[in-house]
């Protein structure tokens, strides 16, 4: 079953099919339909990335230390909140990882919220998008662990506290770590897809009044899922950089 092509996706397929096919061929792949290489989630990602690239310039243009604007205040509150959460979850020095958590939270939040706008949909409803973020988080927290403790110190985290159980614990820990990107992916993807399907179903059944309520619910779920993903990422980083004596 083919997905319904959104108007923006159709626009990209009409005018930018050539560049998209060229980019796909660079990784040795071919589009299922060369005339329509853009999928809905890829088209939505273009909007999200473009918006997030422009947003800092908009905030910077309105920055004023004496009388900060609404966007500046929201940005400062968000960064302060995430730094506080990083310190609480990871411990001392956790704020240096806050930039990654902020990036994940903002990207996921706006990706989720895009589905509230009519004629658009959330790119996080496609498994590939949550999977990409989850894999990036997996690489990030392992990289943070290696940087904080070295390769040997990081590997010791997989051995457990008792030396004679190390071979058994190592296998369990490897499986546990490999499951983390999968669980992050399924949690975000399933919640956003289920929310979208419920919204469509209720809007078809009760077209008057239901859309406003369901859009409010979709907004709440968007914030909640972005927050959960961020907190889990903090927990993974915290475990990766924790020293044995802590």
Could you describe the largest sheet, including whether it forms a barrel?
Answer: none
Number of DSSP helical runs:
8
- CA-atom Rg in angstroms: 21 Å
Low-confidence stretches: none
What is the H/E string?
HHHHHHHH
**End-to-end C-alpha gap:** 52 Å
SS strand fraction: under 5%
Report mean pLDDT, rounded to a whole number. 90
Number of strands: 0
Shape: globular
Binned, the helix content reads over 70%
SS-based class = mainly alpha
Topology:
Layout (H helix, E strand, L loop, with lengths): L6 H9 L1 H10 L13 H22 L8 H21 L7 H16 L14 H29 L9 H40 L4 H32 L5
Helix pairs in contact: 4-5, 4-8, 5-8, 6-7, 6-8, 7-8
Descriptive account of the structure:
This protein is mainly α and 246 residues long. It has a domain at 92-241. The chain has helices at residues 7-15, 17-26, 40-61, 70-90, 98-113, 128-156, 166-205, 210-241. The protein is globular and about 60 Å long. It starts with 6 loop residues before the first helix and ends in a 5-residue tail after the last helix.
Overview features:
246 residues; mainly alpha; 73% helix; 0% strand; globular
Give a short summary of the structure:
With 246 residues, the protein is mainly α.
């Amino acid at each position: 079953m083919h997905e319904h092509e959104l108007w923006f996706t159709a626009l990209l397929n009409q005018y930018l099919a050539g560049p998209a096919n060229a980019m796909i061929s660079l990784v040795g792949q071919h589009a299922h339909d060369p005339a329509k290489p853009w999928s809905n989630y890829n088209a939505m990602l273009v909007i999200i990335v473009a918006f997030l690239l422009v947003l800092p310039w908009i905030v910077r243009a309105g920055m004023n230390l004496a009388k900060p604007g609404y966007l500046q205040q929201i940005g400062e509150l968000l960064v302060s909140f995430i730094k506080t959460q990083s310190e609480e979850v990871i411990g001392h020095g956790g704020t240096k990882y806050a930039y990654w958590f902020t990036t994940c939270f903002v990207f996921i939040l706006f990706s989720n919220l895009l589905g509230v706008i009519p004629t658009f949909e959330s790119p996080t409803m496609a498994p590939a998008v949550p999977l990409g973020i989850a894999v990036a988080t997996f690489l990030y927290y392992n990289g943070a662990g290696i940087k904080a403790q070295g390769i040997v110190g990081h590997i010791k985290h997989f051995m457990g506290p008792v030396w004679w159980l190390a071979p058994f614990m190592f296998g369990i820990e490897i499986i546990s770590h490999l499951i983390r990107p999968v669980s992050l992916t399924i949690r975000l993807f399933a919640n956003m897809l289920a929310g979208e399907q419920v919204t469509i179903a209720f809007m078809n059944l009760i077209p008057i009044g239901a859309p406003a309520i369901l859009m409010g619910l979709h907004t709440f779920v968007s914030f909640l899922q972005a927050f959960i993903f961020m907190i889990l990422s903090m927990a993974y980083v915290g475990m990766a950089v924790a020293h044995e004596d802590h």
